UniProtKB/TrEMBL annotation:
Residues 260-411 form the HD/PDEase domain. It comes from the Bacteria. It holds the Pfam family PolyA_pol. The keyword Nucleotide-binding applies. CDD domains: HDc, NT_ClassII-CCAase. It is an enzyme of class 2 (transferase). Its EC number is 2.7.7.72. Keywords: Magnesium, Metal-binding, Nucleotide-binding, Nucleotidyltransferase, Transferase, tRNA processing. It comes from Branchiibius cervicis. Gene3D superfamilies: Beta Polymerase, domain 2, cca-adding enzyme, domain 2. This is CCA tRNA nucleotidyltransferase. One of its GO terms (molecular function) is CCA tRNA nucleotidyltransferase activity. SMART domains: HDc.
């Protein structure tokens, strides 16, 4: 790709920009008529050269925000200026949304990452301050003319991630760019250059000045990539993960000379990739299509990555030569909740991911299929709306290279899913409730709403899970038996 003449490269980009070419030429002509430069810049240009039609249209211009506003007021159906302080004016006409930013020549306060916003007068200088060379290419409009002062095209062809300015300076200006490097490695399949890796390693501690919310957003985008593992490895290898997700490098447990346990870090990355492969439509032998987990699913992927983070704290070497991680799922659930809260994930994500981590070992009590219907009911009820994700997480947790054992585990889980389907069909487990409601319980026992009624309700729910659907009369008899037992305990 890098050996093609600029004219042909320009033509290629234009072909992939065909759906929005009218917008580009129209806006370019409007700005040129007022004596201003306008260029499509960054991700849209990169994506066009990669053969993708960009969804966002980002421009840079020599016009001031006020001049941009005046032009957009004539062109757009609606405009907005929330980014005016940073030189950005937005507009929408029909289905097309654009954001246009005045050339920037910011100076960064490297103790806070907050830039002193300064407008520039040069497209090349504006491109120089961008994060990576592959995002520092532009199409000057309305011609269009391909502009690539920092070799982004060659890097795109080589799939190399470099910075326009020296990497140390770029990351000092904005440490979040180091997280973006890992994200682009995951999203685009690029390799970070030696200079970028060295700068990330040297400057990893500076990530501490970035807000948890910004780090969370970059981590989520990385995990939602088709293949996040290379990006995660880069975070760990450079020390960035030790700053923002220390539980991940902590999984690199020292493997003893007898190899009495598998590499937990490598295992976790494999589980993540296997979980991703299971997203989407799925069938179970003897059952047919089952409820899918549409991908990419952030909750599933976080749970797969973090499911074993309780192991370092629970590892014990046994006298017989083995190694154990007793209750690592419970410890891991607590650590997961703590870390995701620190990263400012929404409460529902924190709750769901930590619950999956807590439940990920439950299946291993199933063995050869000897679970009672009561155990199946509890498995379904405890998983609740997370059941489909739990199916995928549990299946992904098998990373054995022993083909016979792997086949046996898969067949065992197939059996469990068939059991669950049968019990669900017979008993409507998704809506399982005691066979007496709160009013009936209160009437039967002659009590009023309060903690005692709550205890009685909980007991009947446990009875329902153990015994299955037995009918209101049997439930009432059990309630009275339990009530008599409570009365005796008080005497």
């Amino acid at each position: 790709m890098s050996e093609l003449p600029y004219a042909e490269l320009q033509a290629r980009a234009v072909r992939h920009l065909a759906p929005v070419l009218g917008v580009l030429t129209d806006l370019g002509a409007r700005f040129a008529a007022q004596g201003h430069e306008l260029a499509l810049v960054g991700g849209p240009v990169r994506d066009a050269l990669l053969g993708r039609t960009p969804s966002d249209l980002d421009f840079t211009t020599s016009a001031s925000p006020e001049q941009t506003q005046a032009i957009l007021d004539e062109w757009a159906d609606a405009t907005w200026d929330m980014g005016r302080a940073f030189g950005t004016i937005g507009g929408q006409r029909g289905p097309d949304t654009v954001e246009i930013t005045t050339y920037r020549a910011d100076v960064y306060d490297r103790t806070s990452r907050k830039p002193e916003v300064m407008f520039g007068d040069s497209l090349v200088d504006d491109l120089r301050r961008r994060d990576f060379t592959v995002n520092a290419m532009a199409l000057r409009l309305p011609e269009p003319e391909f502009v690539d002062p920092f070799g982004g095209l060659a890097d795109l062809a080589s799939r190399i991630l470099r910075t326009p300015a020296p990497a140390v300076e770029s990351f000092a200006d904005d440490p979040l760019r180091m997280m973006r490097a890992a994200r682009f490695v995951a999203q685009l399949g690029f390799t970070a250059s030696a200079e970028v890796v060295a700068a990330m390693t040297a400057m990893a501690p500076s990530l501490e000045m970035i807000s948890a919310e910004r780090i969370r957003d970059e981590l989520s985008k990385l995990l939602l990539a088709d293949h996040p593992t290379p990006g995660l490895r880069l975070l760990v290898d450079t020390g960035l993960a030790a700053v923002m997700l220390p539980e991940l490098p902590a999984l690199q447990l020292e493997v003893d000379e007898h190899h009495r346990h598998k590499d937990v870090y490598e295992h976790s990355l494999t589980v993540l990739e296997q979980a991703i492969a299971l997203e989407g439509p799925r069938q179970v032998p003897g059952l047919g299509p089952v409820e899918p987990v549409p991908g990419p699913d952030l909750v599933l992927r976080l749970a797969a990555l973090l499911h074993d983070i309780g192991k370092p704290a629970t590892r014990r070497f046994e006298s017989g030569g083995g190694v154990s991680f007793h209750h690592h799922e419970m410890v891991g659930a607590k650590l997961t909740k703590k870390r995701l809260k620190a990263l400012r994930y929404p409460g529902d994500i924190v709750k769901d991911v930590s619950r999956l981590v807590e439940l990920h070992l439950r299946f291993h009590g199933y063995g050869g299929g000897e679970w009672t219907d009561s155990a199946v009911r509890r498995y379904v009820t405890d998983a609740g709306p997370l059941l489909s994700r739990l199916h995928l997480l549990t299946r992904s947790d098998s990373t054995t290279r022993n083909k016979r054992r792997a086949a046996a585990l898969a067949a065992s889980y197939d059996s469990l899913e068939r059991r669950i389907a049968a019990v669900q069909e017979a008993e409507e487990l998704a809506a399982v409730r005691p066979e007496l409601d709160g009013n009936q319980i209160a009437e039967t026992l002659g009590i009023t709403p309060g903690p005692l009624l709550g205890r009685a309700y909980k007991h009947l729910l446990e009875f329902r899970l153990d015994a299955g659907p037995v009918g209101p009369d049997a439930a009432r008899q059990e309630l009275l038996r339990w009530w008599a037992q409570q009365q005796q305990a008080q005497d």
